[in-house]
Amino acid sequence: MKNYDNVVIFNHPLIKHKIAILRDEKTSMKEFRELVEEITTLMTYESLKKGVYTTEIEVKTPLETCTQQIVKDDSVAIVPILRAGLGMVNGVHVLFPLAKVGHIGMYRNEETLEPCEYYCKLPDGIEDKLVLLVDPMLATGGSACDAIDLLKKRGCKHIKFMAIIGAPEGVSKVAEAHPDVDIYVSTLDRCLNENGYILPGLGDAGDRLFGTK
Fold first, then answer.
1. Which of 11, 127, 151, 183 has the fewest Cβ atoms within 10 Å of its own Cβ atom?
2. CB of 107 closer than 8 Å to CB of 131
3. pTM metric for this prediction
4. What's the rounded mean pLDDT across residues 61-70?
5. 23 CB contacts (<8 Å, ≥6 apart)?
6. DSSP letter string, 83-140
7. What number is the average pLDDT over the span 108-112?
8. Which residues are tagged catalytic?
9. pLDDT confidence tier of residue 111, bands split at 50, 70 and 90
10. Cα 65 versus chain centre, distance
């Protein structure tokens, strides 16, 4: 996969450690869910080194008054791509507990592998917020591209996309379709199989998060 200016692949030892456990087919649903949240928190911290809306306030310490920067109130929105993206929401909320949450529902047509939208509910004023679009798996890139298209149609101008596992095919597709969107991926895997699943991957993230098949 070629290098893209809007793509960051993390190379963090803590994330690598957690992903190794996440992949294991013996990892329980409870531990899988906790790991997804922990990895998301680490990703959020790294992803928001830039691009956050801040403002200055005066703070009185026990010794003097100083000027400090804080994140603007109500400036961040979390938008998970249903259903697996729900597993990442709490990981972002650890750092932004007051962030409002929108939802975009997509499912993949098993024959065409193309995404189909079935639900969209976004917070009021989302066009003025930093939007964190989250989905654990970036496989073909179809759902991510469609979700970003939808957000842009709603007026969103500042979007960051986060995925835990990415395939080169999906990362390239989103990076080229939306060069103005920053894409953050914890781990870049080898490829997609004939059914559009990431290899080596970790199986179906939604099933492992929610105990379904």
1. 11
2. no
3. 0.92
4. 96
5. 200, 201, 202
6. TTTHHHHHHHHTT-TT-EE-EEEEEE-TTT--EEEEEEE--TTGGGSEEEEE-SEESS
7. 72
8. 108, 112, 204, 207
9. confident
10. 38
